[in-house]
Design brief:
Blueprint lengths: L1 H16 L7 H12 L5 H12 L8 H22 L3 E2 L2 E2 L1 H4 L2 H18 L7 H27 L6 H26 L4 H28 L2 H4 L5 H4 L5 H9 L2 H10 L8 H13 L2 H18 L8 H16 L3
Antiparallel strand pairs: 1-2
Helix pairs in contact: 1-3, 2-6, 3-4, 3-8, 3-16, 4-6, 4-7, 4-8, 7-8, 8-9, 9-15, 12-15, 15-16
Length: 324
């Protein structure tokens, strides 16, 4: 884990050297705020890890790493508005600290800054990276729309859920890894394999995130525990309860997910109890392990620097354990 910590620090040092305008303050202060909230910087670390695994100095991938981190924070600003989320990384969300309009416009500026970060690279690499980010961006938007649509639908299938989290979350992890590989001038099939590794790992990560939303520690999770239950989101825990639960458990879950009480504490408590009693809690943890194993399979046969391969494998295992 020392290697991952070194990549995190390398990226943070680079992030802190970036000079940004200060005026108008209402536009740029929220950007500085959300970037200061911390987080594990998973996506930029993946870009650096990927470049290094293909024998390229990680420093060459820093602008690409910055681009994916800025894009990610743009999505967080907008997602928090849509979800009416009060907390992000344990602190007030941007729209809570300022207002919705400020968060929207500052988020837009972050998106533009992400593309500006890629201007560091010359053609044809610049074109490859911008096309990849654009494709990822539209897929993330599609995933977010599905997420919002599914809150209002009862008949969401597990397959639809997996498609949604693939688009909303997983594609950006794949993008991060492929960017690092492209910067390292890896063969296209190898870059695609790293993309598939990240995309599959992203599914495991999101299922784990859903799990922590119900059963995580608010002090370490950084978001409002039970937020998905409040929003009636059909996560893997929901689907596994409908598959594994008794008739009474299924009926009670559906009834609870048809409500949005002003004081949701009792709803959250009862839904979590159903997740546990039905066996969905354990099944969800098993799904995380399954997709993590599937992700690691994409590394097989790749010609990677041994230390780079080991770092990618350790990243996957540590990500699921939330141990860094």
């Amino acid at each position: 884990m020392r290697a991952i910590g070194a990549y995190q620090q390398q990226f943070l040092d680079y992030l802190n050297t970036q000079k940004r305008p200060e005026e108008p303050q209402q536009l740029y202060a929220p950007i500085a705020y959300i970037l200061s909230l911390g987080g594990k910087r998973l996506r930029p670390v993946l870009a650096l890890l990927s470049a290094d695994a293909f024998n390229q100095k990680a420093t060459a991938a820093l602008p690409a790493a910055l681009a994916v981190e800025l894009f990610h924070n743009f999505t967080l600003m907008h997602d928090d508005i849509m979800d009416e989320a009060p907390l992000r990384r344990g602190k007030p969300t941007v729209h809570t600290k300022w207002d919705n309009n400020t968060a929207l416009l500052s988020g837009d500026a972050l998106l533009i800054a992400a593309y500006q970060a890629l201007e560091h690279y010359e053609a044809p690499l610049h074109s490859q990276l911008t096309r990849l980010l654009s494709q990822t961006a539209i897929e993330v938007c599609e995933g977010q729309q599905y997420d919002m649509d599914f809150e209002k639908l009862q008949g969401v299938t597990e397959t639809q859920y997996l498609q949604m989290i693939d688009l909303k979350t997983a594609v950006l992890l794949g993008c991060s890894l492929k960017m690092g590989a492209l910067v390292a001038q890896a063969a296209l099939d190898a870059a695609d394999a790293l993309y598939d590794f990240g995309r599959t790992l992203g599914i495991a990560f999101q299922i784990q995130d859903d799990y922590l939303d119900a059963f995580g520690d608010p002090k370490t999770f950084g978001k409002q525990v039970g937020g998905d239950i409040i929003e009636n989101k059909k996560t893997m825990l929901y689907h596994q309860t409908l598959q594994l639960g008794t008739t009474d458990q299924k009926e009670r879950l559906l009834a609870l997910f048809a409500t949005q009480p002003a004081e949701p504490g009792e709803k959250i408590q009862e839904v979590c109890a159903l997740f546990t009693a039905s066996g969905a809690k354990k099944a969800c943890a098993d799904k995380v392990a399954f997709y993590t194993h599937q992700a690691l399979g994409h590394l097989e046969g790749l010609s990677l620097r041994p230390q780079g391969r080991e770092a990618l494998e350790q990243f996957a295992k540590a990500l699921m354990a939330r141990s860094f």
